[in-house]
Amino acid sequence: MALKPSIPKGTRDFSPAEVLKRDYIFGTIKEVFKLYGFQPLETPAMENLSTLLGKYGTEGDKLLFRILNSGDFLEGVSESELQNPDHSVLSSKICEKGLRYDLTVPFARYVVQHRNEITFPFKRYQIQPVWRADKPQKGRYREFYQCDADIIGSDSLLNEYELIRIIDDVFSKLNIPVAVRLNNRKILMGIVEAAGVSGRFSEIAVAIDKLDKVGMQAVEEELVGKGIPRSAVESLKNILEVEGSNAGRMEKLKQFLVNSETGKKGIEEMETMFRLINSDPPSSEIVFDLTLARGLDYYTGTIIEVKATGVNIGSICGGGRYDNLTGIFGLEGVSGVGISFGADRIYDVLTLKEGFSSLGTSASKVLIVNFGDTELQYALRILKILHSHGISAQIYPDAIKIGKQFAYANSLNIPYVVVAGEDEIKGSEVTVKNMAEGSQTRISIEKLGDFLTMQT
RNA sequence: GUGGAUGUAGCUUAGUUGGUCAGAGCGCCAGAUUGUGGCUCUGGAGGUCGCCGGUUCGAAUCCGGUCUUCCACCCCA
């Protein structure tokens, strides 16, 4: 019985047209990364599970794809381990590797492993797929590309500022209007501290992160439901509901955080960043958003999130500062900050906004009609001339009906067709047809290269 | 991981008291047009109605399971 071919759920094939569009996104991002002095890096698809586990919270651990050991994976597993209802013990024994969940943790691992070869501060970019065993939904895949830029080994807020400029540059080039939201973990910790519930930081962070989505009442209910004291919830509510300009809200916060050293440090950092930003305002909207709490467990300072305005597709870029990430791998005192562009979601946004429409997706610029053996020498000569001019060209491989060859050019969006049959060969000429206009020009073979170079 | 929908030709889909129900449009292929594509016309090929099992004389249609895709939650790019 013939099986219907399929691919694992949450994964996708990319057709030629799709790859071309995706490369346009990668190319744009890469160009900006290079402009700011970032160097390329690639790491393996799989990492040792021990470097991945525990970096993304307990939820994240569940979403890791684990790779079953090759060979007899049950070798050395005892009967009691097989019977143990806590499968995590068994799992860690039969799976030693996992697929990378993001690019930041492998990067941190790389930095620690190669610390003696690296000149700090180290600025690298990395564009590779990552895998998450999430339940797929629209805009959420199990295999997707991240485009990361990180600076490691520098505390300066200039790095944060630079990343914001990169975000602004990339989305300007892609012609996607975005809103950049900024917050700082230190401010959030300060608020939680001032409310007297610092022990419950991550739960509270997750809850207030949903504020713009579910509203204040639902957040209050969630917090109270989790056993946070009413008085603390009220206190949090008051500060979260403050409105006004970026600067105005920071002023109010200062008063609230007067007794929290961490909180004051956070505000100070945020003010420095806005001073830098306002000295040369970017085209994107930059908002200080106290309710932005998301980010992986390892973020400790600035948090950045970018959403495209006018489309409901979730966050298309995110990042932040992490002070302790390399500490887990044994290298203390190195601070990093980075951002990650979600290429697949950017692709979806561009599709919705028809941002690809100006992008040519043709396989080549010229198709040379194949008339048969007699004319083949001449056709090959034309091909060589075009290639030497750097023009992408191909000969139709079979000498089938001319009409079919034109239809081929048409369906592949090839803009020019070169016809060279008996008549043209006699006069050392060719006929060039412009497919979009339908017009034809007959010129000598010597002029062909220059003629087509000038056509766009 | 929890809850809810969905699944008919390559694509979009019509099709309920279960009995000519396997249809349409687009696309594809061929011809009209043997040195010229897009438009038009004519003809043609393509479907175990997601998969497995059950109920029934009989199921695309009812039931159970399973997979897929989509939506909400969780979390996140």
Count up the domains: 3
Instruction: Provide the gyration radius in Å.
Output: 29 Å
Work out the number of β strands: 16
Adjacency order of strands in the biggest sheet: 1-5-6-11-10-9-7-8
CATH class of the largest domain: Alpha Beta
Major sheet description: 8 strands, mixed
Percent helix range: 40-55%
CATH topology of the largest domain: BirA Bifunctional Protein, domain 2
Low-confidence stretches: none
Strand content: 15-25%
Mean pLDDT: 88
CATH architecture of the largest domain: 2-Layer Sandwich
In terms of structural class, how would the helical and strand content be classed? alpha+beta
Calculate the terminal CA-CA distance, rounded to whole Å: 51 Å
Number of helices: 19
- What overall geometry do the principal axes of the alpha carbons give? elongated
Give the CATH H-level superfamily of the largest domain: Bira Bifunctional Protein, Domain 2
How would you concisely characterize the structure shown here?
The protein is α+β, with helices and mostly antiparallel strands and 456 residues long. Helix content is 43%, strand content 19%.
Write the layout of secondary structure elements.
Blueprint lengths: L15 H20 L3 E2 L5 E3 H4 L4 H6 L3 E3 L10 H5 L3 H8 E5 L4 H10 L8 E10 L11 E10 L4 H17 L4 E7 H10 L6 H9 L1 H4 L1 H10 L4 H11 L5 H11 L4 H19 L5 E4 L13 E7 L6 E8 L13 E7 H10 L13 E3 L4 H16 L4 E3 L6 H10 L4 E4 L2 H5 L2 E6 L5 E5 H10 L2
Parallel strand pairs: 1-5, 7-8, 12-13, 12-14
Antiparallel strand pairs: 2-4, 3-4, 5-6, 6-11, 7-9, 9-10, 10-11, 14-15, 15-16
The protein binds one RNA strand of 77 nucleotides through α3, β6, β10, β11 and α15.
